[in-house]
Amino acid sequence: MASTADGTGTEIAQERRIVTEIPGPKSRALQERRLKAVAQGVGSNLPVYVERAGGGIVEDIDGNALIDFGAGIAVTNVGNADPRVVERAQEQLARFTHTCFMVNPYESYVEVCEALNRVTPGDHEKRSILLNSGAEAVENAVKIARSATGRQSVVVFDHAYHGRTNLTMALTAKNMPYKHGFGPFAGEVYRMPMAYPFRWATGADNCGPEAARQVIDQITKQVGPENVAAVLIEPIQGEGGFIEPGPGFLPAVVEFCRANGIVFIADEVQTGFARTGDMFACEHEGIVPDLITTAKGIAGGLPLAAVTGRAELMDAVHGGGLGGTYGGNPAACAAALASLEAIESGGLVERARAVGETMLGRLHALAAKHDIIGDVRGRGAMVAIELVKGAGDTTPNPEALARVVAHCHSQGLVLLTAGTYGNVIRMLPPLVIGDDLLDEGLSVIEEAFARL
Ligand SMILES: *Cc1c(COP(=O)(O)O)cnc(C)c1O
């Protein structure tokens, strides 16, 4: 029996087990059925249908046990079906399922807001609002920034991903698949260069300061700082390819925002809740955002999202101006409280750092053997490799990526991809994954490169 990280509590054996080809016959049959029922626009990264999941394992309906390097896209940071999350949500569900906080409020919503105000960066007076999805949180952050400043423009960045609603499509950089054919998009959105160290023309060392100068110059010349309500950025870009901006970039942009009355919004929907080895990725460079959006890792898998920010900004919106029928659903709030407790009492911030060290160590060694690994990067348990054509040729290599990922999937490793050029393999294991499974998953990736 392989090791389970302390406190995982799952009854699922923490072992990879492959008993059929992947996907197995039952999954393939269900996939057939699905194609006649589910809209084709919804994809599935790896169509093995799930029976149960916990710790670092996803079990499918054919009896295979896969190693989870995806955590449902950085959602089940505390593990899938964490027993504390399940127990608290169940207890809540049995008392009441919904009243709508805007009709009859309840304590757990207030408690989650208190907790978010406590754990997010900065010790200033804060307020929070709860919503259903990351996109909805970003939409609300922009509404709040516009209302508080009386300005309209929003500045975003190359490679950004902020969601799939109309405004957040406009804020997102990549056309295919997120925006293609879905316009017209919301206006007053301005896109700026991103400090992308691996692809910065004058080299990674110059990237942060040079990119910041370009951004500040472009905002000044093309938009006018006095028109800008908000600068919105992921402190480490997620879907864009796990791009960690060059050092100095974020602090310079924040300083410019402060000097010009611009609301700085950190979109920590993917990076939040211990994922990057800090409770929030902003902490790494001591950034204190005016508003922060959270979702994915917030509630152990139940749908919940939030905007947290400076009281004077949050409270600038007129009464009744914010809300939504389901925002802050009581079961999701109960799950969030249990999940946060699991993160804090389980030492998952430290655990994310240890997971990251293991991954980066093995992947740097792998990169030394394979020229097509152009870059290995990441912070905490948010790690990626970017594939290129070869030594000195940084042309993206999505073909090699497809072969590596197909091999990993066939061997029972749930692995996700990302990147504007479709050439980034991203790793986001649940933070409670045991060391044995983590090592085994990395071995599967090494094998996949060896077979190329
Ligand atoms: C996933 C994501 C979103 C959108 O969240 P949904 O819950 O899918 O709407 C927004 N911003 C970032 C950074 C994300 O990773």
UniProtKB/TrEMBL annotation:
InterPro entries associated with the record: 4NH2But_aminotransferase_bac, Aminotrans_3, Aminotrans_3_PPA_site, Class-III_PLP-dep_AT, PyrdxlP-dep_Trfase, PyrdxlP-dep_Trfase_major, PyrdxlP-dep_Trfase_small
Alphabetical UniProt keywords: Aminotransferase, Pyridoxal phosphate, Transferase
PROSITE patterns: AA_TRANSFER_CLASS_3
Gene3D superfamilies: Aspartate Aminotransferase, domain 1, Type I PLP-dependent aspartate aminotransferase-like (Major domain)
GO process annotations (BP): gamma-aminobutyric acid metabolic process
Top-rank taxon, per record: Bacteria
Keyword Transferase: yes
Known cofactor(s): pyridoxal 5'-phosphate
EC assignment: 2.6.1.19, 2.6.1.22
Pathway(s) served: Amino-acid degradation; 4-aminobutanoate degradation
Enzyme superclass (EC): transferase
Pfam families reported in the protein's UniProt record: Aminotran_3 (PF00202)
Residues that span the membrane, as ranges: none
Gene Ontology MF terms in the entry: (S)-3-amino-2-methylpropionate transaminase activity; 4-aminobutyrate:2-oxoglutarate transaminase activity; 5-aminovalerate transaminase activity; identical protein binding; pyridoxal phosphate binding
Cross-referenced CDD domains: OAT_like (cd00610)
UniProt catalytic activity: 4-aminobutanoate + 2-oxoglutarate = succinate semialdehyde + L-glutamate; (S)-3-amino-2-methylpropanoate + 2-oxoglutarate = 2-methyl-3-oxopropanoate + L-glutamate
Keyword DNA-binding included in the entry's annotation: no
Matches recorded under NCBIfam families: GABAtrnsam, PRK06058.1
Family, similarity comment: Belongs to the class-III pyridoxal-phosphate-dependent aminotransferase family.
Protein's UniProt name: 4-aminobutyrate aminotransferase
Organism phylogeny: Bacteria, Bacillati, Actinomycetota, Actinomycetes, Streptosporangiales
